[in-house]
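Design a sequence for this backbone.
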């Protein structure tokens, strides 16, 4: 078979030579819906975990301390103790789960290859949860 005949055969069978990257419109809509639902579920779980953590750290534990300890030392020094413990938890998270990267690094990764490596995500989620729950000034994307 000549080169022109083989190129015509390849061009004529465009459906057969279709790659896995080319999705139909219906497949794209389904994929977008699945990604949207999954992202919404993760965000909702994170929100409720953060609300519960904030309630425990800033309401339940201080009330427990006031009711069960006669000394005022813990009650008067609770804020700096809680934030120090939270910083320790953030450090442990980053030590064991790995550094997710600085904000500029993460933004560059989103723009250049178009995604963040999945192994960086758990560290971001857990470290930001600890940071915010214990009074850190960082936002969810930058613990």
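Sequence:
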């Amino acid at each position: 078979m000549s080169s022109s005949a083989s190129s015509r055969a390849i061009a004529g069978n465009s459906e057969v030579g279709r790659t896995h990257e080319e999705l139909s419109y219906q497949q794209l809509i389904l994929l977008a819906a699945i990604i949207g639902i999954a992202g919404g579920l993760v965000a909702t779980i994170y929100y409720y975990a953060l609300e519960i953590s904030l309630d425990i750290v800033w309401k339940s534990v201080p009330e427990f301390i006031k009711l069960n300890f006669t000394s005022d030392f813990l009650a008067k020094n609770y804020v700096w103790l809680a934030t120090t413990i939270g910083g320790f938890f953030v450090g442990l998270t980053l030590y064991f789960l790995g550094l997710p990267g600085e904000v500029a690094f993460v933004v560059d990764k989103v723009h250049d290859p178009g995604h963040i490596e999945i192994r960086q995500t758990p560290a971001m989620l857990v470290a930001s949860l600890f940071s915010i729950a214990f009074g850190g000034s960082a936002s969810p994307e930058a613990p």
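Residues 22-133 form one domain.
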